[in-house]
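Residues determine shape. Next comes a sample protein:
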Amino acid sequence: MALALHFVAAAAPDAQAALAILRGRYEDVGADKADIVVALGGDGFMLQTLHNFLSRKKPIYGMNLGSVGFLMNEYSEDDLQTRLGKAESALLHPLRMRASGPNGTTEALAFNEVSLLRQTRQAAKLRILVDDKVRIAELICDGVLVSTPAGSTAYNLSAHGPILPIDADLLALTPISAFRPRRWRGALLPHRARVRFEILEAGKRPVSAVADDLEARDVSVVDVAEDRSIGVTMLFDAGHSLDERILAEQFVD
């Protein structure tokens, strides 16, 4: 029995052209009736799709029509039902960010990472607490991030953070261009850890907090923790699961 599909695509011309082709070959039953949502675009669009369909609890299968496409499968118009029938699943839990400041409080979810970034030429000064215990009294840096395993090969890897297996039950806490303490390279945290960032000298050294693509500016305190009550399923072609991709990423040149 064929799986019921709903197609969504990024605004880029290539993705929109693919959307028209696939809807011509496979019936689009709409979001409510679909068994699987097929997303056409790059990793950024996949993150948008995960957020947009979170409440519908539909598995998401992506096909790459972007640049990197780490979270996507290879694009092909053929045998889509067969590929979906054999696909391997990965369950992702997001981080929940609560960022407070003079402009109010912002709450958001992040499937990749929550990052704190300096807003001006002045380096950020941050205090880091883990489970209510001060671990770094003063970190002078361009920023810092907390990454999920799924996001560990994204911004976290660019900041020289560790790659995490998808089922590791860990979070990566990674500094971005740390100045003091210069030798601190970050930490691996249990997934249950609650991380608090207190921004020091916030008026002189303003900091923004970003959860995936949602930004809160001029924050003073940011709390980050994994939310296991929320989960979304991603689908990957057989033999190209997310855990295999993350493992393979550790052996590239």
In short: Residues 95-226 form a domain with the Tumour Suppressor Smad4 fold (CATH 2.60.200.30).
